[in-house]
What does this fold into?
Amino acid sequence: MPNVNPTGVVIPSVEGRASTSALGRAVVADALRAVDPVGARGAEASTDWRRDYLVHFRRLVEAGLPSRAAALTIAQDGLASLHERMRYRRNAEGDEEPLEAAFNAAGEPLATVTVEGRGAAERELVVPYKGRNLRGEELDRQLKRWVAAGTIERSCADTIRTVAAHPEWLALPGRRVVVLGAGAEMGPLRALLRWGADVVAVDLPRPAIWQRLTEQAERYAGRLHIPTAGDQRGADLLHDLGRVADWIEGQEGRLVLGNYVYADGALNVRVAMAVDALTVRLRERRPDLGLAFLATPTDVFAVPDDAVDEATRRYREATGIGRVRRPLRLLSAGRLLTRNYPPGLYPGINDSLVPQQGPNYALAKRLQRWRAAEARAAGMPVSLAVAPATRTRSVVKNRLLAAAFAGAHRFGIEIFEPATSNTLMAALLVHDLHAERPAHEHPWQDEAFAAAHGGLWRQPYSARSALGIAVLMGIGGARG
It folds into this structure.
């Protein structure tokens, strides 16, 4: 008989049953309450959270735009709500306890196995792209093409150029990057090892994961530090937070805690919350701690004025699918191919939430953005980069998303391969650990800086209004 009571960090029960919808409604309402009480009541009153969350997650951004204080209040109150509501269960028959109990589980301290790389460290920034290795002038030309196509922000290209001009940064001397979710396709582990960095790896105790990561570490130039318990490599963040926290705390060098974890459905919220609890614990014990995150482009962001203007121009000048825009809009009662932004309204709101990814994914990713904003305001070093849509296994296993990816180029959206994305994102991390980002007045500007959104911010049409057509075109292209 299946275990009906999950253990470790868990979603709180409502009337005897874990409910991610109840959690999502409550957290969003708590986050909005002080700044937007009408929005908070709207979230609480939702009867179909899987559909309604799209409106309320957008409102979380809109309500924070009037001031820095409003945005930070939303972030801080949302985080506080999650920490208050999430629970820990020691065993399937046990009661739910406060989240803090996750750090009290007993067990022998984790030991460390260090794998020394045998390769030569790369002393030049090289970005794999469509079968080529871009470096030097060729990389610079591709950065210019991406900017011209609206694929990345100009600040992203400039940041990558800065890293290319300082190859001595790549090995991150004096630092250790803790990669939580070390086996993730979007994580920086492989790039950092190629560059000769010290990497602390945390992922589930599954032999296949560690065989692959160990082989990579031996092939490249860096050093990989792995938690072990007896003959078992790896650690489970949901169940073993106390030992993981103690183990990471004992690592040498200036630590950067990188959050690259991912899971499906409700498990994504649970593991994201485990990481955030770990973050809070470690920042109390390691004042040198820095944080790193990847934001998904399929979320809601405020975007710069020039992104709004470019999308408006492209809407006005659209060819191809734009030639049949009017009849499509009439047939769909205005739902298809709507403008990305109202012209002249700044900053723009790019709403690229994808219903197929669901409210749990949105909450897990918003949690990370909230923590980045809160920590940056508290004076912590923070690297948060908007990563492009990427053909990872976790995404393309969804048929609709795979088809949408196949048709996305018809709307000026570039879908990246994992090797390109994770190298670019690792380079942005290296930059943020060596050079201070520009000071911004508002958290939305911090999020927009150096964004590599794949074109979602500068295309003429809102993402959801083009999604169905992209799916049809992608399916047709695949059949062809």
